[in-house]
Specification:
The structure is a single chain. The chain is an alpha/beta fold. The chain contains 14 helices and 15 strands. The strands form four sheets. It has a five-stranded mixed β-sheet, with helices on both faces. It has a four-stranded mixed β-sheet with strand order 7-6-8-9. Keywords: Iron, Iron-sulfur, Metal-binding. It holds the Pfam family Thioredoxin. This is Glutaredoxin-3.
Length: about 325
């Protein structure tokens, strides 16, 4: 699939109009990491699970109004948009995080609205297959108005509050974005209202049922929990063979130590991923204690802490850095 190249504000506005997920790379020709991420986007666009996603690149400095609107202050920056509304973003060259964000956003993006009653039998069968996939898309699926971050009715907000009170791990589907699913699921599950909560593909019920389960003490044991901080930290330090926890990102380091480390790493030619600890205070404080290392940046190889900037400088000066990065 060809990566669309947008050059004007009008082209941008037309590109992001459809009810589908658009991924825009705000880039600069002078930044080598932008070229690398253009290649990464090209590969992502070929993945079958992203066949309904449209990808494009746009020179940030050529469309200042758009860049200002989406608060693009550094490159590369990736803005995820549905119907001209920003739904998520990724700052910096982080392919893994970009792929994760695209996957998360896709659950709220569906095809154009269609009346289920007007569908031929073959289409109804296709819809039933799709509904089965949706209710099994995660161990716990909540079909609601809006999202867990922005519920759009008091019933949806109430059920989200209940699930969050148990630190539950769940995915959501916004039925306001798809009339076909909204009407089809009512008939499929013989349940006329929303929200609807499913666990392991089975309908649990709506808000009243969930409240009853909460009051009886049964609900908590039914819900899988989000990862603990320790589990999350272990996942993060093992996310890539070489992981760097820093202030800012490779394109825009936000402290002198992080900037110096980026310069050293670029000189090695070794591939690495980064995590901006300024965007997650829980990770920032938790990792200090987890690894018994009080400062940033921190560099990990295959899940093992190598050290901070001083250690990396020592390894570089002694000629041992490349071996250390290979683990």
């Amino acid at each position: 699939m060809v990566l669309a190249a947008l050059k004007t504000q009008q082209e941008f506005e037309e590109f992001v109009k459809p009810l589908k997920l658009s991924v825009l790379h705000f880039y600069a020709e002078w930044a080598p990491q932008c070229e690398q991420m253009n290649e990464a986007m090209q590969e992502l666009s070929k993945l079958p699970e992203f066949r309904d996603v449209q990808f494009a690149k746009i020179l940030a400095e050529e469309v200042p109004e758009i860049s200002l609107r989406h608060k693009v202050t550094a490159v590369p920056t990736f803005i995820l948009i549905v119907q001209n509304k920003e739904v998520d973003r990724v700052d910096g060259a982080n392919t893994g995080n970009l792929k994760k964000k695209i996957t998360q956003c896709l659950q709220d993006v569906r095809e154009p609205l269609v009346s289920v009653h007007a569908l031929p039998e073959s289409s109804k069968a296709d819809l039933e297959t799709r509904l089965k996939k949706l209710i099994n898309a995660a161990p716990v699926m909540l079909f609601m108005k809006g999202s867990s971050f922005e519920p759009r009715c008091k019933f949806s907000r109430a059920i989200v509050d209940i699930l969050n009170s148990y630190n539950a791990s769940y995915n959501t589907f916004d039925i306001l974005n798809n009339e076909e699913v909204r009407q089809g699921l009512k008939e499929f599950s013989n349940w006329p209202t929303y929200p609807q909560l499913y666990i392991n593909g089975e309908l649990i019920g709506g808000l009243d049922i969930v409240k009853e389960l909460q009051q009886s003490g049964e609900l908590e044991s039914m819900l899988p929990k989000k990862l603990s901080l320790e589990e999350r930290l272990k996942g993060l330090i093992n996310k890539a063979p070489v992981m760097i926890f820093m202030k800012g990102n490779p394109g825009q380091p936000k402290c002198g130590f992080s900037r110096t480390l980026m310069e050293i790493m670029r000189g090695t030619g070794v591939s690495f991923e980064t995590f901006d600890i300024l965007e997650d205070e829980e990770v920032r404080q938790g990792l200090k204690e987890f690894s018994k290392w009080p400062t940033y940046p921190q560099l990990y190889v295959k899940g093992e802490l190598i050290g901070g900037l001083d250690i990396i400088k020592e390894l570089k000066d002694s000629g041992e850095l490349m071996d250390a990065l290979k683990g």
